[in-house]
Amino acid sequence: MHRWGCFATLLLACGHACFASSAPQPPQHGEDLLVTDNQIGRYGGTLVLAQRSEPKTLNPVTAADAPSREVIGRLTADLIHINRWTQNTEPALAKAWSVSNDGRVFTVKLRHGLRFSDGQPFDADDVVFSFQVYLDENVHSPQRDLLVVGGKPIKVQKIDQYSVRFTLAQPYAAAERIFDSLAMMPRHLLERPYKAGQFAQALTLNTPPAEIAGMGPFRVKQYIPGQRIVLERNPFYWKADRSKNRLPYLDELVFLFVGNEDAQAIRFQAGETDIISRLSAENYALLSKDVATRGTDFFDLGPSLEYDFLVFNLNDLRSKNLDSIAAKQAWFQAVKFRQAVSSAIDRDSIVKLVYTGHGAALWGNVSPSNKLWTDQMLPHTPYSLDRARELLKSEGFSWRSDGQLIDRQGVAVEFSVITSTSNAQRMKMATLIQDDLGKLGMNVHVVPLEFRALLDRVFQTYDYEASIMALGGGDADPNPEMNVWLSNGGTHLWRLGEARPATDWEALIDQLMQKQMVQLKYKERKHLYDQAQEIIAANVPFVFLATPNILVGARKNLGNFKPAILDPNTLWNVEQLYFIPGNGARPGEKP
Amino acid sequence: MTCAHSSCASALLRIHGLTVRYAASQEQSSPALVGVEFDIRRGETVGILGESGSGKSTLALSILGLLPVSTNITGSMLFENKDLLQFDESAWGTVRGTRIAMIFQDPGLSLSPVMRVGDQIAEVLRAHRPGPRKVRKQQVEAILRDVGLSQGDRIYGAYPHQLSGGELHRVAIAQALSCRPDVVIADEPTQSLDATRQAEILDVLREVNRKFGCAIIFITHNPALLAGFADRVIVMYAGRIVEEGPVPQVFRQPLHPYTKGLLQLVPASLQDPDRTRGQHLPALPGSLSHSDRSTRGCIFESRCFARTELCQSESPREVVPEEGRRVSCFNYEN
Amino acid sequence: MRKKQKIVAALMLLVALHLAILLAGFIAPYNPATQNRDFPFVPPTRFHFADARGHFHLRPFIYQWTVRPEGFNEYEEARGREYPVQFFVRGPEYTIAGLVRSDVHLFGVEGPARIFLAGSDGFGRDQFSRIMYGGQISLAAGLLATGISLFLGLLVGCISGFYGSWIDESAMRLVELFLVLPWLYLLLAVRSFLPLHISPTQTFFLLVAVIGTIGWARPARLVRGIVLSAKGRKYVTASRGFGATDSYILRRHVLPHTYGVLLTQAALLVPQYIVAEVTLSFLGLGVSEPVSSWGNLLANLQQYNVLASYWWMFAPALALVIISLGYLKVANAIHERLQSDSI
Amino acid sequence: MKYLERRVIHGLLLLIGVSILCFALSAAAPGNFFDEMKLNPQISPSTVAGLRARYGFDQPLVWRYGHWVESVLRGEWGYSFAYNCPVRSLLLVRARNTLILTGLATLLAWLIAVPLGVWTANRRGRWDDRLSMASTSLLLSVPELVIALVLLYWAVRIHTLPVGGMASVDFGGLGVQAKLFDLALHLVVPVTTLVLASLPLLVRHIRASMIEVLQAPFVQAARAHGIGGARLLFRYALPAAANPLSSLLGLSVGALLSGSLLVEVITGWPGLGPLLLDAALARDIYVVVGAVMASTLFMIFGGILADILLVAVDPRVRLGKV
Amino acid sequence: MRIEETARHALKPALAKAAGLSKRYVQRAPFSYKSFVIDALVDVEFDIAPASLTALVGESGSGKSTLARCLAMLEKADRGEIWFEGKEVSRSSDRELKALRPKIQMVFQDSAGALNPGFTAAQIIAEPLEVQRRESGARLHSRACELMEEVGLSPNWADRRPLEFSGGQRQRLAIARAIALKPAFLILDESVSGLDLSTQAQILNLLLDLQKAHSLTYLLISHDLGLVGQIADFVAVMQQGKIVEQGPRREVFANPRHHHTRELLASVRLLRSNFRTAQAGGR
Lengths: 591, 334, 343, 322, 283
Description:
Chain B is α/β, with parallel strands linked by helices. Chain B contains 12 helices and 12 strands. Chain B is globular. Helices cover 74% and strands 1% of the residues of chain D. Chain D has a two-stranded antiparallel ribbon. In chain D, helix 4 runs antiparallel to helix 5, helix 4 runs parallel beside helix 13 and helix 12 packs antiparallel against helix 13.
């Protein structure tokens, strides 16, 4: 057994010896370090946290899953970064940028003298190379679509060693936000595989650490399949604190792979991990019971940006041979029907029973914690069965003597709601909604489906009547949401891929969203987006339900710990995190 | 009850009033053995004669303490003046196989099919005579030679199914004799063999008895086997001893009607010129299972050719018609 | 004698349990789907005989639970008013076996108090009622699916063991195939071909069919072994000597040997199949809300917070253990009897 | 070796059958690996379609199967979409971890079950036998899942056991002994679960076989020769019960790779379980097919092992006299 | 091998006959190429006269049982012919076999194993009748009771199961079952060897009675020459798959040709003479 262990360690750590030491390098002359204004910490320590699954790849261009992106985010850096705390953009590898008056040309000045984690210098060539890869159609990067503005890819030009020009085909509001999380990659390591057409296979988990380099605060030290990935300090990281201490403070960052949320909670409770992100409400309640004894802190950061909603299938079913569903679409298409459903859903119960109070009811797509874009004027339809009945009555619905709701033709209103079995919260919502709508005389069936089977129905076969899903949670800006609201968008869930807007209000939303996208002034843009939100809320294509609060836990002795609403909630400032010395140190800590 | 032998004080094994009742038996009232009593002296050969169901095997198992724990046993079994019935499992370990050993009916079944026969003999030695392996192997080979198996090596390494019937019997004898027991109980050891092999096995047993001086209790249903082999014969019927005496006397002049019946079963000769085709063989009427075990009278009454009124109502007492003999039959009372 | 008593005792227990579950409507005080949203995860109601003033009551009474002001899902008894436990009370309407319609329940209390014999779940639904009703589906499905599995297993096992040679070889390969196939995918595929909404009855038969057909491989293997040894018996040869056909020999001489194993298998499979519903629900093939089944009740235990905080959520597991112990006992007893009969 | 040749050919046929069915099933299951991207508003449908085409999803099933066979012949066992690497390298490490867990659990289960089964068979009907039968009945009726969760909860409460995973974070820096100790601590919960789950059936089978053997005449004979106690039970009776037990052991071995999925997922053991579950749900089909093939191999191997064992223990089989 | 004196019987055609019968068992151990070859029958020539009692003697493993099973059509020989009632039957079709079966019946050695322990006595006896559809329903049961009576068993025991009977009674059950179909030819494979002397005599007497009543032909297989020698008309001796001696009993006993027969006879005689001597009072 021992031999086996040695073998694996040997295999994965073989590159380690030829690496430069990971002790922080002293600042060098001409190095344009970014100075942070956090509390000055202390070097040392290993931060351990758990992830739902292991990263599948270390390749920032092809990675599509959250666990991979979480790890890659610590290994890489972007030009312009969204500060998770302020939700605003700030310079990162770019020292500064300027925008032309028409908003189409971005000129980015890079920091001088920065180096990748393997000690090689970083300059405009790396930036141009990185964008070349992202934009290459053959690489199939999920991020590519982000970089296609107005149907044309962004043009990238090197001006000199430390400046790059980006040209957009049309004005694009908050274009600088696109740069967030676009990792800058080392040309010296990746150009060869890229030219050989092997880019997708480069930077896998089996790649020796010596062949991986990034601009992030950490670099790969060791990967043990199925168990954990260990990152160590990037000695060349480009941030320093006020005392000119090069960040990060932590020696190592360890991601454990722990299959489910419950197991993660158990690990955290047992003290095996230092931070737990996105704790479920139930476990938050359970774990925060014994805060006092365990040296841990729990934070309720308030509502997330995600929105849970009920969506009715309004897709064009003519070619699909789904007559029974098509027959029901007459109800779903009636705005008053949807409004009645919305009124009859007891959102407070959802918040209370599903999120144990750690969530917020929603009436629109923008969460109350979205500092820039929440529409304060959005009406909150109160929970009212009477209003729901009124609405139904005015739409021609009536009730049989046994309380069953029937439509004009006397057909009993009965439909099913699909929901993913892997999401306990949404399953619960479905059960509550079923009960709520039952009071209206609607016969609702809950149909739990495995996640991909559900996606197949929603995106492919359209064989469903209503579905409970969730979207959002990425950026606070409206632009990434465009494809949800544009009638021809790929995520326009209630009616996918419309050639023309099917209704007037959808046409109106299209206009508003298109306008806000090119509007560079925040105030104007906010106004447009508010209007869109109001139209959405009034026509209820999605019956918005609730949003969970972001709940996290961490050791008490973690310095500079500042969890945020935006993803990654806890590690966004990982380079600033440090262990406050004292009696709260991790048990079994190496000196 | 009386002791048939004058020299009973010197008995090696002395069984007294042994009554055995199986707990799970269907007929709860009828014991498998009733008041059995006899002695075995050092070095003698005793035949126990009876049909199947007469209690012979129960007797053998009880002497070795192998009856199920739930069995109800009364009486006493004195072996060297120690009562075997009081023994616990560990005390039995010092007797079974080493002082009293048994040769089973069918060696094909009584030898483990998955062990080499040599090892099986060695196991018996190991259990009673601890010593180095090598020595044990030599001992086993010596014992095998004693029972007439000269190819010690081949036999030692063979599995039971690789040996012939005769060889298996010899192995079984060797196994029983490996610790030079004082008493060997042989339970119908020749039944499945043809006449030639039967004779050989009897020779071996006779030889063993002569050489090692161990007493042999030979259980059989065939009186012919006892002739010229056993010193004494005990005839059993339905769990009771009905007659006992030296083989020559009993065979010459059987007393109990049952003994008479058994003796006449042995065919006169191979070519009986008088016997016509299809003529019946001499046979005992009825069968043991017909006997009413709960009767107050003689247990053999229903099959007896000499029964009287008395036989139905009273059970006969044991009488000693002459020195060294006893019989339970009204014909000989008074 | 003793053996017979054992069987009778175990059988009586099983019959009583099944009867109770059949009469779920009458025994359960509430409708299993009724939510009490103010009372999620209420612990089992406590019965009292002595009230706050120290008076002794002959009729047990309960107190209403109220939410403790601080703390999440924590309750205390409202000592203000006693609610005596009543028998044969009127409550929600129910039907038994689709025949008898009634609204009389074995026991209950006056509203607004609620009697939660086994606590309540996350929606404030009475868990005891859910267990009783859930048992109807789970036990019936478990038994029926076991029947199918054993029937198929018996069929394949008999044919394979009896005819031997290539039939046996290919049947055993088929068994192995069934043991390793990624059923998940097949079930997902099955689900996608089914209509969107499947009624509880359809779901029930689906469960039965799916579990039953997947599970035949193991019993088939066991049956084959027994058939192999049974067909080598002398009396089978004797029977051939009379000119007995294969089917006669199978029917009269071979099959009876398999009964013991089949029974034991049945006792093992029923609880396994009840638990299997948890997996199937995950694939969208289980009974869905608000209908309860032991499978989806047990699934609650998969959540750590439920496991760690609400001990009464183990009640369905207990019910399953009791039932399957009953089955095992019966199987053991019958098996023993069969053994003592034959040898 | 005639026998082995036949077994190997049968095994190969089985493997081919399994692989074909796996492919057919995976094609029939709704959805595919790239579907999840559709939920991301920032990824366009055409990108998803491009990715699908890249991995041959626009090709007929037969073509994909052919490609897969080719990659099996190259020793890659297919390609994981999620990990962007050959399946074999993914499976090997995790299969090793699974084997550490299940090997130990199976070993322990047998080490406990054999003496217990033998002992209770010998003590049939007495109090200790009844106790053992009652507790195995109880264990049989408790679902594995519940056992695992309760043990895990217990581990959290007592604070001395790790509550998941295979090694502590500082594992790499430990000495050999400390490493083994660390591993042992992590093994406690999953191994106990597996042992408790598999023990009752084993004990019952062993007990039943032993009861049969203990009634055999040669056991009685051995007793008559003064051989008793453990020697009688283990030297005489147990080998004679080898026939049913060796096939039971074959089944145990056959289930080494596939028998611990649930427990691994719950206790976070880095074996095939979590990988397979993830892959199955994400429709990373080649990983699933690979894992299924691996467990088929084990089953075939288990069957052969059972026969070898039987031959080793039972000379009648060895010499062709059954 | 044929003996002149059988001319008398040769006039009547043999009821059953084996010609050049050979059977070889090849067993292969799982992990080796080596195979074990057992020649159970080697060119066996064998005649059975109608209404006679032929004793087949030989030690265990000599091939007696194989010969019996081949004659009973329970096993197929590799080579050679079997004639029954003047017809070659060894290559009969299934249907022909079914018609033939009732005429040839077999009684096995191990009566406990050859009777299904789960059946009652009546069911056991009725089985052949049921299989051949000779009787059904209540007639089946009453016929079984008649047969029980015929073999000396009380019909009161019809509902008992085999294990409640003694060895001799079980053998009677087996015989009753075998004669249920009124066969012409009865093969008794070591049918009396497990029994004690008194029971053996009773069973043999029963067989003699049945022979008289139904004009049966017997093939009585035994390892005990002394026993079967008492009643047999013909004796055949087998050794290692070959018939080394066959002929009328008197002929064989008086003038054994093969040394194996001679040895066997000598041992039987020795045992007998010992006994006679003892009875006569000598030692």
